[in-house]
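Sequence decides. Our protein:
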Amino acid sequence: MFDWIEESMPTNRSAKQILGRRFNLKKVSLESPAYMTELARLLSAGSALLSDNMMNVYSAKDETVRYLIMNDIAPHFEDVKIVCVEDEIEVVNMQYLKQESKKMFDSTNNGIIQVIHDLFRNNDMSIWTDGKKRELTRYSVKLNELDKYDIDNTNDIQDFFTKGYFDLNEEFGFIPTGWTFVDELKESKALRFFATFIPTITLVVDLSDKQVVMIQLSGDSMKE
């Protein structure tokens, strides 16, 4: 096995049940922004590169993260809905990237865009939709074995994941495209960037075809 990973067991994190809880949707319309932040570029990448009708759903329980979503990310989308549970904001749903935002997304070859094109190496979404039974194994990345890849102007990305997910004992998952489970993944710009601030990175691998089907990002340890 590769020297930069080790097999790991699934966590016992469980999603909060909303059955029986009162929830509502509020559609909002936001003015188009004049620029795109690195955070917005990262979190709109699926809509820009893979599918225009992709639904982007992000936790908005934390006040700082809610501000980032509503000011930096949501204004780039045509369809924005705030989901409230028991009158408390839980998530924001975003769909259909605006045409001017698509142009902004492609306006640079530097910064987080390098990570994005590493995450999504092609536009083959069959890994998401083929419905095949998979033989999944989890591998924890040994962060000290990676050559870290720092990117300027990404403090808001760190805040988004830390305050929006890890501080709430929640995980965040990316479904990459074109990722084959080989030793060369150690040089992945995405993994090397996430290793600069993510406490735990886990690769979920289908050993039947050696595809990486998910990259899970999480905090130091699960809290009971």
Observations:
- The radius of gyration is 18 Å.
- Residues 5-15+25-218 form one domain.
- Residues 35 and 137 are 40 Å apart (CA to CA).
- The beta strands are 5-8, 23-28, 56-59, 77-85, 88-97, 136-141, 172-174, 200-206, 211-218.
